[in-house]
Design a protein that fits this description.
The protein is of the alpha+beta class. The protein is about 55% helix and about 15% strand. The structure holds adenosine-5'-diphosphate.
Length: about 475
């Protein structure tokens, strides 16, 4: 009942064009419908432009320019100022959408009267814009990003000239507002960040786009630039080296015994490494060298090597070693003392995983789901990964032996145990002062609840014979 007066006027108005009296009104209606159709086309153009321009990755655009695709440089010109581009598209899109709804309201009001006209125009135009001005063109643009960005580049540039005053004004105003609210606007940030790539790798594996091995290798590549030499080096204790005054056949013997092709040569002590000799040169010179006039010396075969601090990043060192064509570098600490050596293989293993030769044992041996046997020199990061635990990383120790030693605060003996954050660490093998092997067991949740909290120092529990 309340609605009837509302429809009384429209019905009367509707009859006028039907009986052909209001010719002017029907002309207006036809013109209005044509205008709405044209505006929907424009709305589709702007919406699809937004998707095509902002979904086109930089690298693909650069490729298009390299391939001399006509129009690609115009696309680049527009994308070079993403803020201006977005304002152009938004101003254009809003002008056409609002014009469309105004025209529709005017026409529908003629036929259906004020309020009904407004309601019909609101819902009708919303439906039309959503379908034909937004979703259809946007879906098309997503699938045809490259081709569509080329097609719309020229008309978009023309729009920029046509709406120039409006665009300049809104460009200025939005920049000011962004400044006020402390935002630079997401469109001005790099098109892809490191974190985004890492997230993509994670979800890539979850979705099955990446194999597990590919995922692991990509993850390691991202970790690589945070890795320092100390984490990958062979420590001083395991270094095989020869003194400079050794005979060549002695050096060959040392290489053979140790199974290494390159050995550092030192003068006096290991803290004074002069360079490196390769077994190939030693053998070649022993057998085919010009040894007529006297003894050939080891010093003649020494190749220079790099001395690097233990805190150096491995990605930098890898580049340097490749540039200098060196396979081995000597690692020194801040006092100039030799700490160990590092080879290309040590660094490449960080990306592709452990490379084991001949009789080499696995550094981490899985006993069961909750227990592993770990060699002392294994990095804590790798132990954490293997058991899915959380021992502290990035502190003054790198290896599991370093961790045990640090927690104990003194030398430990075989059989001693540490409990830390739900993990029981048992020292399995000690040679002299060095922890060679440890067993790590993830404690059951029930058992874990009785262990000491994180903040307390871990207790070293000696076995019966100890101390
Ligand atoms: P090689 O095949 O001669 O052993 P790689 O570069 O393949 O040399 O290194 C394999 C592993 O052996 C690496 O962990 C590296 O640190 C270590 N290594 C290489 N040469 C020596 C050496 N002279 N003394 C001790 N360890 C070495």
């Amino acid at each position: 009942m309340a609605l009837s007066p509302l429809f009384a006027v429209p019905l009367a108005a509707y009859e006028v064009p039907v009986v052909g009296v209001g010719f002017d009104q029907s002309t207006v209606t036809v013109l209005g419908v044509v205008a709405i159709a044209a505006l929907i086309g424009l709305s589709a153009f702007f919406s699809s432009s937004e998707i095509a321009m902002f979904n086109l990755p930089k690298h693909r655009l650069e490729r298009m320019i390299e391939d001399d695709i006509p129009g690609a440089s115009l696309v680049k010109g527009l994308k070079d100022d993403p803020h201006r581009l977005l304002v152009t598209i938004l101003v254009g899109n809003n002008v056409v959408n609002i014009a469309m709804s105004s025209i529709a309201t005017a026409i529908l009001s003629i036929h259906f009267g004020g309020l009904a006209g407004v309601l019909l125009a609101t819902f009708g135009i919303t439906a039309l814009v959503l379908l034909f001005g937004e979703s259809v063109p946007k879906s098309y643009a997503v699938e045809n990003t490259e081709a569509w960005s080329i097609r719309i580049a020229r008309p978009l540039k023309a729009t920029e000239y046509l709406l120039f005053p409006l665009i300049v004004l809104f460009d200025y105003l939005t920049r000011q507002i962004n400044k006020l609210i402390g935002s630079t606007g997401p469109i001005e940030s790099p098109y892809v960040t490191r974190d985004e790539i890492q997230e993509m790798i994670e979800s890539g594996e979850r979705e099955g786009v990446l194999e597990e091995e590919e995922h692991e290798m990509l993850t390691r590549i991202f970790r690589f630039n945070n890795t320092i030499v100390k984490e990958v080096m062979t420590p001083r204790l395991d270094m095989t080296a020869v003194p400079k005054d050794a005979a060549i056949d002695e050096a060959i013997e040392t290489c053979i015994q140790s199974g290494h092709a390159r050995i550092p040569v030192y003068e006096g002590s290991l803290d004074n490494v002069q360079g490196v000799v390769h077994i190939r040169d030693l053998v070649r010179d022993l057998n085919y060298g010009e040894a007529d006039d006297g003894e050939l010396e080891l010093a003649d075969l020494i190749q220079p090597t790099l001395h690097v601090p233990e805190s150096k990043n491995v990605d930098e060192l890898l580049t340097e070693m490749r540039e200098n064509r060196m396979h081995m570098a000597i690692v020194i600490d801040e006092f100039g003392t030799t700490e160990g050596l590092v080879t290309m293989e040590d660094m490449i293993e960080e990306i592709i995983g452990e490379i084991l030769e001949g009789g080499e044992e696995q550094p981490i041996e899985e006993i069961d789901d909750d227990t592993v046997l770990v060699r002392g020199e294994v990095n804590i990061e790798d132990v954490n990964e293997a058991l899915d635990i959380d021992l502290p990383e990035g502190q003054e120790f790198e290896t599991i032996a370093g961790f045990i030693f640090n927690r104990a605060g003194r030398l430990v003996e075989e059989g001693e145990e540490i409990t830390y954050d739900g993990v029981r660490i048992t020292v399995e093998d000690v040679e002299n002062t060095r922890i060679m092997m440890a067993r790590l067991t993830k404690l059951e949740a029930a058992e874990g609840s009785t262990e000491e909290p994180d903040s307390e120092p871990a207790r070293v529990e000696p076995d019966e014979n100890d101390e």
